[in-house]
Amino acid sequence: MSPTAAVSAALFFLLLHSAVATDHIVGANRGWNPGINYTLWSNNHTFYVNDLISFRYQKTQYNVFEVNKTGYDNCTTEGAIGNWSSGKDFILLDKAKRYYFICGNGGCFSGMKVSVVVHPLPSPPSLKSTGVHSGAALVRRRSVIGAILGFVLLGSVWI
């Protein structure tokens, strides 16, 4: 695959993913720090499969571990499922389940832990309930896909 085609394909998948996924920044503008009620924060968000949860923090002070419920309840990293320490961590929520995240270097005891429930993607509305004729919906869907592909292919010519 040529470098131009690779860039085009990457752009296509980035556009496709960004159209359906949400990046949930833990703690919003306050980030991943002690003394924040992350339970309240998570209860005000709805998470779906393929969303991202991102943690922003000073990488020399904190980190993020994905743990099981026991690790979450006891603030322990034993048997951790994953760990991150870049200070700008983007974690794909790729399954419908409850996820548990803690700060593994003591911050958990100061409230740096969050649990989120990830829901399956909602089903698209049925064509009958929207009142759209199935042929029109198919043409519209193909037009959108065609426009995206055209954009990517046109971009690959100019790169």
Question: How would you describe what is shown here?
Answer:
- The chain has 159 residues and is of the alpha/beta class.
- Helices cover 37% and strands 23% of the residues.
- It has helices at 3-20, 38-43, 69-74, 127-130, 134-158; strands spanning 23-25, 47-48, 51-56, 64-67, 82-84, 88-93, 98-102, 113-119.
- The protein has a five-stranded mixed β-sheet. It has a three-stranded mixed β-sheet with strand order 1-3-6, with no helix packed on it.
Summary tags:
three-stranded mixed beta sheet, 37% helix, 5 helices, 159 residues, alpha/beta
> What general outline do the C-alpha atoms trace?
globular
What is the count of β-strands? 8
Main sheet strand line-up:
2-8-7-4-5
As a whole number of angstroms, the C-alpha radius of gyration is: 20 Å
* Low-pLDDT runs: 6-18, 134-159
Biggest sheet statistics: 5 strands, mixed
